[in-house]
Amino acid sequence: NAGVTQTPKFQVLKTGQSMTLQCAQDMNHEYMSWYRQDPGMGLRLIHYSVGAGITDQGEVPNGYNVSRSTTEDFPLRLLSAAPSQTSVYFCASSYDKKPGGYTFGSGTRLTVV
Amino acid sequence: KQEVTQIPAALSVPEGENLVLNCSFTDSAIYNLQWFRQDPGKGLTSLLLIQSSQREQTSGRLNASLDKSSGRSTLYIAASQPGDSATYLCAVNTGTASKLTFGTGTRLQVTL
């Protein structure tokens, strides 16, 4: 099925550990982005990419790294996990300059203890 | 900085009632506005997308309107059903690399 695939769905990390959240889309979308969702705060943009090899910071980038080596994949790396990074993470993609709107993945629920 | 507000934060209505969810944004220079539905513990499902040049979009029992000059959008749900119970999110695209700014959502419960 076409769409945005995120793995894993759930993850528990210890403080200081690192990990990579995977995101892949098969719609040939130019834009990809990562959001985190916290209670009472809505979704906030972490990092985004407008195409392979091009990434930039969003509203809350600290503690996260991204890269975009292919159009399809946009992994999010937590460098040294902190309890403040406990959240639900969503990956999303869209076309550039086409009125298709955004497609979201099903999310990764991350707990840092 | 774009800010998006959704009112009310929560709403409970009996089945069959028509209802309106509100979304307001502070910067009228938007590219488009998108309404999403989120079920508990799930991802976001796109409901309607309104381009900045459009006034409204309709899909089944859903109708979304956009008034850019006043910074407002409404989502109208006709003849509500228990299956409509979910959180509804409004997101504004300012056109800068298609970054979305979200409201905090309206949690809707439709009772039998």
Structure description:
- The complex is a heterodimer of chains A (113) and B (112).
- Chain A has no helices and eleven strands.
- Chain A starts with a strand and ends with a strand.
- In chain A, the strands form two sheets. In chain A, strands 2, 4, 5, 6, 9, 10 and 11 form a seven-stranded mixed sheet that branches. A four-stranded antiparallel sheet of chain A has the order 1-3-8-7, with no helix packed on it.
- Chain A is globular, with a radius of gyration of 13 Å.
- Chain A has 113 residues and is an all-beta fold.
- In chain B, strands 2, 4, 5, 9, 10 and 11 form a six-stranded mixed sheet that branches.
- Chain B contains no helices and eleven strands.
- By secondary structure, chain B is an all-beta fold.
- Helix content of chain B is 0%, strand content 57%.
- The A-B interface holds A 31, 33, 35, 40-45, 48, 50, 56, 58, 90, 92, 94, 96, 99-107, 109 and B 4, 32, 34, 36, 41-46, 49, 51, 89, 91, 93, 97-105.
**Cα gyration radius of chain A (Å):** 13 Å
The counted number of beta strands of chain A is 11
In helices, the fraction of residues of chain A equals under 10%
Summarize the biggest pleated sheet of chain B: 6 strands, mixed
From N to C, what is the helix and strand string of chain A?
EEEEEEEEEEE
In percent, how helical is the residue content of chain B?
Answer: under 10%
Oligomeric state, counting identical vs distinct chains: heterodimer
Task: Name the structural class of chain A.
Answer: mainly beta
Per DSSP, what share of the residues of chain B sits in E-state strands of 2 or more residues?
A: over 45%
Sheet bearing the most strands of chain A, described?
7 strands, mixed
Overall spatial form of chain B:
globular
Query: What is the helix/strand order of chain B?
Result: EEEEEEEEEEE
